[in-house]
Amino acid sequence: PEQIRGELNIGPPADIYSLGATLYHMVTGNVPFDGKNPSAVMHKHLKAELVAPDHVNQKLSSGISEVIEMMMAKNPRDRYQNCRDLISDLKAVKSGGHPPMAHREIAPIEFATLAHAEASAPSVIMKDTSRKPNTVSAKLFIIMVVVLAASLVFNLVLISLH
Length: 162
Known about the structure:
Helix content is 55%, strand content 0%. By secondary structure, the chain is an all-alpha fold. The chain has a single domain, classed as Transferase(Phosphotransferase) domain 1 (Transferase(Phosphotransferase), domain 1, Orthogonal Bundle), CATH 1.10.510.10.
């Protein structure tokens, strides 16, 4: 979102957002936001609410869904600030726990947002916490680590070229 807004001071949270969008697509089979043209898609990245990945693919654990949702937070301050925290949450999910960073209280919402939410598809207020880790979570963790490592290597190569 900050790239769409043309912000100049873009840091690791922007990469984490992109990685989250890629992961969302991988685990749901759908892009996070779709539209008739690139402008419509960009607008949705800025304004539309993300459909929770575990609402699209019910085989996903609530923990991995929370991680992806945090990766794709609209505000960069609400995302993981570094890969270390992201990996820590992924490890927690892999071992069957809750992701400590992503599993946090949500800030109060505005009445306009609440009215929009009531008019749209129902959303889960409380995530199911009784699920055991499954092979989807383990595979997802491995994929995330590989993609993250490739991204880091690619960025290091780009930095060394400049």
